[in-house]
Amino acid sequence: xxxxxxxxVTEISQTPGVVGVICTDPQGLSLAARxxxxxxxxxxxxxxxxxxxxxxxxxxxxxxxxxxxxxxxxNILIRGQQNSTLGIHKV
Amino acid sequence: xxxxxxxxxxxxxxxxxGLRCISVSDRDGxxxxxxxxxxxxxxxxxxxFMGTFAIASEQASKLGVGKNTxxxxxxxxxxxxxxxxxxxxxxxxxxxKSNTGMLYSLEEDLRDPIGHLQAAVSVP
Lengths: 91, 124
Prior knowledge:
The complex is a heterodimer of chains A (about 90) and B (about 120). Chain A is an alpha+beta fold. In chain A, about 25% of the residues lie in helices and about 35% in strands. Chain A has a 5-stranded antiparallel sheet with strand order 2-1-5-4-3, sandwiched between helices. Chain B is α+β, with helices and mostly antiparallel strands. Chain B has 3 helices and 5 strands; from the N terminus they run αββαβββα. Chain B has helices at about 1-15, 45-60, 100-120; strands spanning about 20-25, 30-35, 70-75, 80-85, 90-95. At the A-B interface, helix 2 of A face helix 3 of B. Chain B: InterPro entries: LAMTOR3.
């Protein structure tokens, strides 16, 4: 059932420059995780997406933001969808 | 010790939206330390409710997949996350729409203080 998701997450994690991928459900529980982004990070990734979405500037509920968390060593991109949140750690 | 743990729990109570109560009880459900927000219905944390976890966790440990470490229960109004620190039980009670993943990761920060409590009562 989750084979397709696992496949997609693996594919993203094999993209050059990507060192970690995580996908979470709306409750912040990890659905799939690869590399540097551990399942324990799922709550924070999902929480960031939810908090950022609450900044919504009147563009409707479907307009979800993409968040970039910048570090010296790389960026984590987070994008919330209706039923999941995807986090990608890039160097 | 008790006051120290209470202060730590109080600090963590405001870290996750919707978290209403953090409680440490013994395996029979007797409260040891508890912090909760204003207007929290304290009837929710009756000893019978807390004590049931120890039994449920013990039964879950017999499923042949290792020792049970936590149980998450969803209700219409609340979610309850309980961690097995036997002889102690750590309980988070939050709104049903709270971020379960964030609540779950809070436990990592509380591992040390509750570990100290476990060490204090363990028989050498």
